[in-house]
Amino acid sequence: MSSGSINKKNLTETDIITKFIMPSIKSAGWDDMSQIRQEVALRDGKVIVRGQVGKVKVIFAFHYLIHVLNSHS
To answer: Rounded CA gap, 17 and 24, in Å?
Structure first.
């Protein structure tokens, strides 16, 4: 079955990631073990305390974070 014949509206988010996004990222030359992170939440480090409960505020949330490796490391 080619990707053109798949009704993407019937697929789950995980299906889309598995069948289309990850293969495209990997075929573009990105290494999934050292350059790709999935479901990343970045925080500013501040802890919000209310009574006895502390919480770290999420600033940005990413489905994918792709980074270039430093060739000098």
So the answer is: 10
